[in-house]
Amino acid sequence: MRTNFLKSIITTGLMINLAGCFGDTVFEAAPLSEFRHTNEPVLSAALTVDGSMSIVAEQGKVCLWDNKTNQLKFKCLVGDDAKHIELVGFSKDKSKYFISNRTSVHMFSATTGQLVGSWATGKNIARDIAVSADASTILIGYRSGEAQVINTQTSVSKLLKIHRLDINSVALSDDGTTALTGSSDKFAYVWTTNDGKITQRFKSTTRINHVAMNSNASIGFSIDSVDDRQFLDLKTAEERAELNIMANFIEFNDSLFINDDKWFLTGLPKSTLYLWRVADGQQLAEYKAAKLRLRSSVLAVAYDKNSKSIMTETSDGVLEVWPYEPPK
């Protein structure tokens, strides 16, 4: 059900808070606007990289939203095909989106809403999914430690044994040729999707829960279950920086390299959004998203470089727009 309560919040509420590590300034602000996509709990959500569209999946219902008009793009998908949808995402060119119940993947046109392809995972259970910029390649990471690479134009797929244990997170270069995967075996691997050849290895202390990669597969990020949270040089296999934060057990639901890879945007449980500097891991900004239930998470993040604004989608079904202030 669509509940429209779009509201603008005066930017004079912005404030600078001296809450950063070692006395550095951390920017904080109230949202500029927010819009409620649903009153129901959200199982999964995704934003296009610029925040212009959202996918919102609740139990038995999946909707695609145009965030510029706050209108549904198409009739929502309901019924059996919309049950237990726990993984969703967009291609970077915004032409396609996918939904998955972890045992199958369905891809749709974001222009027409028509189904363009479906793939079953067999006996494997999908843990994470990524797509190339033009949606020609799908990467699926499985609990088995295997990864499946699917050519969506030919439906030819390859099942590759990459890790010893569960693959918890996957990332894919824009051209679909390079993958970064993080596993419960404590390793993050960079590998080529053509043949599964591992080109770089990064070891963490505990299981790796989340990885991210920039467009051309030159910079990556890996965070484990305790306190390893590293920016990685994917060409030289060197650590570039650690996140400059003392807290342990940080989790990221979504992340994005922005501003020509100078900054890193992360969405967390507990309705929090952080912005980091890649060069030294310094925290630059912190935002608190709407929390309408006891447990609420930032499920998806985006950045519109034209308006220089940040967008978030939460497990409460709320889209929020935030101001972005580059450090002086």
UniProtKB/TrEMBL annotation:
Keyword annotations for this protein? Answer: Repeat, WD repeat
Ranges for the WD repeats: 160-201
**Pfam annotation, one family:** WD40
State the protein's name.
Vegetatible incompatibility protein HET-E-1
Q: Which InterPro entries match?
A: Quinoprotein_ADH-like_sf (IPR011047), WD40/YVTN_repeat-like_dom_sf (IPR015943), WD40_rpt (IPR001680)
Q: Which domain of life is it from?
A: Bacteria
